[in-house]
Amino acid sequence: MRLGSRAAMAPPLGNDLHTVRTEHRHTRRSLLAGLAAFGAAGALGATGCTRVASSGKNGGDLLDRLRAQGVVRLGIAGEIPFGYIDRDGNLTGEAPELARVIFKRLGVDRVQPVPTEFGSLIPGLNAQQFDVVAAGMYVTPDRCEQVIFADPDYRMPDAFVVRKGNPLGLHTYADALRRHAKIATGTGYAQIQHAVEAGFKESDLVIVPDQVAGLNAVESGRVDLFTGTAVTVRLVARGSAKAESTKPFVALVDGKPKADGGAFAFRPTETRLRDAFNAELHKLRRSGELYRIVRPFGFTRAEMTTLTAKELCGS
Fold first, then answer.
1. pLDDT tens digit string along 150-203?
2. How far apart are CA 91 and CA 27, in angstroms?
């Protein structure tokens, strides 16, 4: 999952690498090219009146407007497994599927994707290009100054893609540093910070566009490992004849274990919508339905969490 300014219900991925790569091409390139018109048309069409600014009085009135319109626009960034368009042109992913269930309970029948680059999600949200960020976005103190978050729906450790058999014995960043391993990770990924905290120089990291490029780098021997979120790594390494994923581990940041939590983001004026969303999220968490919704996207019970946005925002 991405950290910086650029920072993821049939099963979303097949059981082989070809499917992962095919899905990825649809979510990175054709998502923006093929659906830009769709997203723009939707934003200017039936949902256009959601562009009316809310004063934030009494927590904002966006929830009422969404109920009246029957549709909510979701900002997505085309990242498997968090929020993307599948091979058939359908919106799916951990966050959109969860959004469908929660907004249905809130009286909003439909969700509509608005594809954008990851770094444009928060600016686009605050510019009212869409109503909520549904991209599995990590909750960080910096982001908490720009948007308000629901409580996290998952907590994610790191993992590596390594060559089959893990010949260098790479299980943590400390292992990688000791073995002088060459590391690749994705553009804007939180794992850049995690590797730097472990002692790597950022200039020594190989930055690739995405997890598929990272897998290719490991398979070709250009790097010793690719690091990403545990779920991303599991999915991209599945079916590879030359690479495998390691067990998840929690990185150390400022000397303390840190597993990031991903959540939905809302405009700061829309506390009423955020609170209503949170109430339904907590019900799903307690009933176990939350896990059943996200499990098809590669999530495990170990990645479910009771963390709050307040904890992650640092206030």
1. 999 999 999 999 999 999 999 999 999 999 999 999 987 889 999 999 999 999
2. 10
Cα–Cα dist 151/261, whole Å? 9
Q: What per-residue string of b and e applies to 27-60 under the rule 16 or more CB within 10 Å gives b? A: bbeebbeebeeebeebbeeebeebeeebeeeebb
For the chain, the first-to-last Cα distance in angstroms comes to: 23
Would you say 122 and 196 are in contact if contact means Cβ atoms under 8 Å apart? no
Is cis: bond before 81, omega within 30 of 0?
A: yes
Strands 206-208 and 183-186: parallel
Please enumerate in sequence order all residues whose Cβ is within 8 A of that of 106, keeping only pairs 6 or more positions apart, or say none. Answer: 63, 66, 67, 276, 277, 280
pLDDT in tens, 39-67: 443 433 333 444 445 556 778 999 999 99
Q: What is the pTM of this model?
A: 0.77
Q: What is the token pair recorded at 267?
A: 């405009």
Q: Looking only at Cα atoms, what is the longest distance across the chain?
A: 59
Per residue in 222-267, pLDDT (tens digit) is 999 999 999 999 999 999 999 999 999 999 988 888 878 999 999 9
Residues 222 and 218: their CA atoms lie apart, in Å, by 6
Strands (E), 18-120: 71-76, 84-85, 91-92, 110-115
